[in-house]
Automatic annotation (TrEMBL):
PANTHER family: ABC TRANSPORTER, ABC TRANSPORTER, ATP-BINDING PROTEIN. Pfam families: ABC_tran (PF00005). It comes from Allorhodopirellula heiligendammensis. CDD domains: ABC_DR_subfamily_A. Keywords: ATP-binding, Nucleotide-binding, Transport. This is ABC transporter ATP-binding protein YbhF.
């Protein structure tokens, strides 16, 4: 992470709905001009975090600030500092793009003549000048996303929070979106961009925060996270009957606990696939270190049909980090938010 001036900061941010913890002690910071990729599957807690940041929801505990303004108590300042683009564009029948932007500019209290000038500026920044007189409800999804971003820029905020901006875009529109976000970052804007999948957008992010079930699982540069992910290897143990699966899973877990040293994530990572008669695990251990596990299983009376390493491409591994399950909660909970926190499971994130 760059050492630039901190613009967005959360400390132990927690949100509970009765007994349910939607956000669990989230601590992170984003610097000026940085693009944060805020990644996690559906229900991970991204919108909860964003709603707190933009002052629409109060946390149960913890703090959040944007450019020094308290998100909980200084909602006027926050409104001026932040441009928020929600996931849903909304319906605006019979409204031209210029009228749409004029409407939101007026809502921000921008006077008529600076508003007209600003509309041209934001359309220029977002490459949407040609849409000036088009009707918003006749635009494609990609065009609407541009206009939505133009709208968030009307009051020239320091921070842009974009909820799923790449959602529903075709490949070319995604590329265009990336270019636009980089341009905004070059202008010194700080961006928080959410996504429920590993987006192409992650490649332009300076920092990536991965969140599942309300907890931060990984935080760092994409390179940091990738490096850690690449050091892990996945093994599969094929068994002869499905009644072995849970038992072998437990043996593997205990063995990793003893042999994987401080690589606690390995233990959290054991996946038992009953119907496939298979146990899968990922580990930082090398071949020589992992080989004794096979003899250990045999010495415990387990019949093993195959014990093999499986190829996982980087993207699979990256997604599996984002989709870490409950079992790793005890590990991630005590881990500081800075630096890389990774776990991997074989479950797939929805794409
Ligand atoms: N008002 C509420 N009352 C109870 N539970 C809630 C409420 N709002 C959100 N939740 C729950 O909190 C969890 C986090 O939701 P959140 O909307 O933050 O997830 P998300 O990461 O934004 O997911 P998505 O990508 O689907 O929008 C979910 O399990 C959701 O059901």
């Amino acid at each position: 992470m760059s050492s630039s001036e901190t613009v967005v900061e959360t400390n132990a941010l927690t949100k509970r709905y009765e007994n349910f913890t939607a956000l669990d002690s989230l601590t992170m910071r984003v610097g000026k001009g940085e693009i944060l990729g805020f990644i996690g599957p559906n229900g991970a807690g991204k919108t909860t975090t964003i709603r707190i940041l933009v002052g629409l929801s109060k946390p149960t505990s913890g703090t959040a600030t944007i450019a020094g303004a308290n998100c909980l108590t200084e909602s006027r300042k926050i409104k001026r500092l932040v441009g928020y683009m929600p996931d849903d564009f909304g319906a605006y029948p019979n409204m031209r793009v210029s009228e749409y932007l004029d409407f939101f500019g007026a809502a921000y209290g921008i006077g008529r003549s600076p508003r007209i000038k600003r509309i041209d500026e934001v359309l220029d920044i977002t490459g949407a000048t040609y849409m000036h007189d088009l009707y918003v409800d006749a635009l494609s999804r990609g065009m609407q996303q541009r206009v939505a971003i133009a709208r968030t820029l009307m009051h020239d905020p320091q921070v842009l929070i974009l909820d799923e901006p790449a959602n529903g875009l075709d490949p070319q529109a995604r590329i265009d979106m990336r270019v636009m976000l980089l341009r905004l970052s070059d202008m010194g804007k700080t961006l928080i961009v959410t996504s429920h999948i590993l987006p192409e957008l992650a490649r332009i992010c300076n920092v990536v925060a991965m969140i599942t079930k309300g907890k931060l699982r990984a935080f760092g540069t994409l390179d940091d996270i990738m490096r850690d992910v690449q050091q892990r290897r996945t093994f599969e143990i094929m068994l002869i009957s499905n009644e072995q699966v849970e038992r072998v899973g437990e043996i593997v877990r205990r063995w990793l606990q003893e042999h994987a040293g401080d690589a606690l994530f390995d233990v959290a990572d054991v996946v038992c696939a009953k119907t496939e008669m298979m146990v899968r695990f990922s580990t930082h251990l090398n071949d020589r270190e992992v080989a004794p596990l096979l003899s250990h299983l045999v010495s415990q009376g387990e019949t093993v049909v195959q014990f093999r390493e499986v190829a996982t491409d980087l993207e699979d591994a990256f997604l599996s980090v984002a989709n870490a399950g409950d079992e790793s909660d005890h590990v991630a909970a005590g881990t500081p938010a800075s630096g890389v926190v990774t776990t991997a499971s074989a479950a797939e994130v929805d794409a």
